[in-house]
């Protein structure tokens, strides 16, 4: 079993951070996964003028009748309801209310599919409807159309367990404010989470650099004589200048090969190479490649 003192400090920090952060991440995920969210519906209202009192006064012979009675004003208000998101709800009650009592000449309602239903009841100042079911995958809209003598648009209201009704503009505002609201409510959690991931990234980066700095960059090569025969036991001094300053002295093997450093091939490599051997002239040069193939020349007086 390895001793604790032999384990690199960055590795210990990474392990502890991952252990603690994993528990935090699990708690955060569980909280948001189990947090109850209401079903959200949105609505739009469009109004159309069919007849108004002002134009009728300009044309005395113009008459509009409903059920045999002359009327001066007639307006059609259309309300469309859309299920946006949230859990399934069996049914919900919706009231479409005008600012005051109105005369309702007619009303109509429609469901988005044969599997859905909507029923309406007339009130003195609007209508009350029951829609079912309320599901987020509902295609189309629930629709409520009302013909009245009031040009003012009605206001929809909804009652139901864990269900919310918003206008399209309110829905857009809510989506824009959701991130800001989350940050305001959970800013300590956001800071802790960002700090955790930042610490893990920093420690991993340091650990990676530490491993590379201990091992150094790889430099491999073959040393040959003037006759292209491998030179054994030649001393090769490698001073890596970039990306990290390291120095190492090795000797060639029987085939003239040498390997210095780790198994990393760094970008922007630069090293100073010095090769010496008793029977050959010392050679020193700069290299931007970690793979060295170099031929030595014999000293003066030495036979080729």
Describe this structure in words.
This protein has three helices and 18 strands. It has three domains: 4-35 and 174-212; 39-161, Immunoglobulin-like (Sandwich); 219-295, Carboxypeptidase-like, regulatory domain (Immunoglobulin-like, Sandwich). Helix 1 (9-34) packs antiparallel against helix 3 (168-215). It has 304 residues and is an alpha+beta fold. The chain is 26% helix and 39% strand.
Give the gist of this structure:
This protein is α+β, with helices and mostly antiparallel strands and 304 residues long. It is 26% helix and 39% strand.
Nearest-integer average pLDDT: 78
User: How many distinct domains?
Assistant: 3
CATH class of the largest domain reads Mainly Beta
**CATH homology superfamily of the largest domain:** Mu homology domain, subdomain B
Q: Keywords, please?
A:
Immunoglobulin-like, 26% helix, 304 residues, 3 helices, single chain, disordered N terminus, 4-stranded antiparallel sheet, 5-stranded mixed sheet, alpha+beta
Describe the secondary-structure layout.
Layout (H helix, E strand, L loop, with lengths): L8 H26 L4 E13 L1 H6 L5 E3 L2 E3 L2 E12 L6 E6 L6 E7 L6 E7 L2 E7 L9 E7 L6 E5 L3 E5 H48 L3 E6 L10 E8 L3 E6 L5 E4 L9 E8 L2 E8 L3 E5 L9
Parallel strand pairs: 1-11, 12-18
Antiparallel strand pairs: 1-4, 2-3, 4-9, 5-8, 5-10, 6-9, 7-8, 12-15, 13-14, 13-16, 16-17
Helix pairs in contact: 1-3
């Amino acid at each position: 079993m390895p001793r604790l003192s032999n384990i690199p400090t960055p590795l210990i920090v990474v392990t502890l951070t991952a252990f603690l952060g994993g528990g935090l991440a699990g708690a955060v995920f569980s909280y948001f996964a189990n947090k109850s969210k209401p079903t959200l519906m949105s609505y739009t209202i469009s109004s159309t003028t069919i007849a108004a009192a002002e134009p009728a006064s300009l044309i005395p012979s113009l008459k509009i009748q409903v059920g045999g009675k002359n009327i001066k004003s007639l307006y059609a208000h259309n309300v469309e309801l859309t299920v946006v998101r949230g859990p399934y709800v069996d049914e919900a009650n919706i009231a479409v209310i005008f600012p005051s009592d109105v005369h309702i000449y007619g009303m109509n309602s429609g469901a988005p599919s044969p599997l859905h239903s909507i029923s309406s009841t007339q009130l003195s100042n609007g209508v009350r409807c029951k829609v079912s079911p309320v599901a987020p995958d509902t295609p189309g809209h629930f629709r409520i159309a009302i013909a009245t003598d009031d040009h003012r648009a009605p206001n929809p209201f909804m009652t139901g367990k864990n269900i919310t009704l918003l206008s399209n503009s309110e829905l857009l505002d809510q989506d824009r404010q959701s991130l800001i609201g989350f940050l305001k409510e959970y800013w300590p959690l956001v800071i802790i989470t960002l700090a955790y991931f930042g610490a893990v990234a920093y420690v991993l980066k340091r650990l990676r650099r530490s491993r590379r700095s201990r091992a150094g960059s790889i430099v491999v090569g073959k040393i040959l004589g003037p006759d292209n025969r491998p030179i054994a036991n030649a001393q090769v001094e490698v001073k890596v200048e970039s990306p990290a300053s390291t120095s190492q002295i090795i000797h060639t093997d029987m085939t003239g090969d040498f390997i210095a450093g780790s198994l990393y091939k760094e970008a922007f490599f630069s090293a100073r190479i010095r090769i010496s051997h008793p029977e050959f002239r010392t050679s020193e040069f700069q290299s931007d490649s970690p793979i060295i193939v170099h031929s030595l020349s014999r000293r003066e007086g030495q036979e080729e």
